[in-house]
Here is the input.
Amino acid sequence: MARDRPERARDARWRAAADVLAQVRREPGITRASVARRLNLSTGSTTEITARLRDLRLLTETPAPVRGRGRPTTVLAPHPSGPLVLAAELRQEDWRCAVATLDGRVAHLQTGRHAGREPGPVLAALRQVLDRSWRRYGERVRAVSLAVAATFVDGDLVQASSLGWGPVDLTGLSAGTGLPLLVGNDATLAGVAEARTGSAAGAATALHLLVEVGIGGALIVGGHPVTGAGGAGGEYGHVPFGDRRLRCPCGARGCWDLEVDGRALARHLGDPPPADPHTYMREVLDRAPRDAAAARAVATVASALASGIAGLVNAHAPDVVTLGGFAGSLRAAAPAGFDEAYAGGLMTFRRAQPPPVLDAAHGDEGALRGAVAVGLDHVTSEAALASWAERHPR
Here is the structure.
């Protein structure tokens, strides 16, 4: 343990700096004076810390607009030569990749489609995109953060039902770069984004649910997901809220997944199982306003969604529930049935003041923004800042 003390002492020097950078992420365009107030720092300490971050090409300071009397202050922003995170999202039909600066802003978004169910070609195409970013930004890139609609255990992808994948090795995406590869479930990361800067911002405990192909989600406490042993928690789509006669691709029976997505709509409409449940759901939602059969199917699925949400509220007691993907569209298409099923599934003592159910603020970008948030957590940690300082001495 004594051997670790120098490293611990080195990292501790960066704790306040990490707090300042976290505040810049929470409030892009924040002034130095506001940072001091938020973090309860003295003016002198804030000046010293921001000067150090400026010298190390982590932040820039520009004069803030003058508003009334008082000392002039500065606006804090990422340095144009500062660290970056590469964030990517891999979905059933496509992928997207972006670069993020220390304030969480996303730039240079690239998108593409993939045609196959074999992981090799899909990952090779994504690696090519990442390689282009590495060539462009060089050592400024400090981490790669990836969101996938998949189950992860101890950082390993063990199953991605919507992609038709079993266990897949993702390490090739950053092999040879020396960069950490951070991976996570798409719904979990979307929940992180909502809790940090979205509809659940400020909530101590938030439940996020995302309907795409099946339903995923996360319980977020203090801005961080509760992921359980091995990091595999939050598989809400595989709780047995559904028909026990139906077997899910995950191997279990009665999964909630099968009651809330395009596969459920197809059953209710008497159609064969759709090859692409995501596209099928979009098409049924689009025609529901003028097609009575489609409207009835959507209402049935919306009620199944609401009943399950009530069960999770009874279990977790969140301050707020946020809905991503198709979940908000299902509620909007059948609001009365949704509300009735939600209230009916709540324990009596919760019905007077049930947790509000809100649409996600980040919409389709939730998982990617969550990947950015997790990546920036890594590159602004005390250890990462100390490493950056060693590479960029003043």
The mean pLDDT is 89. The two ends are 30 Å apart (CA to CA). The chain has 14 helices and 14 strands. The chain has three domains: 2-78, 84-189+367-391, 201-360.
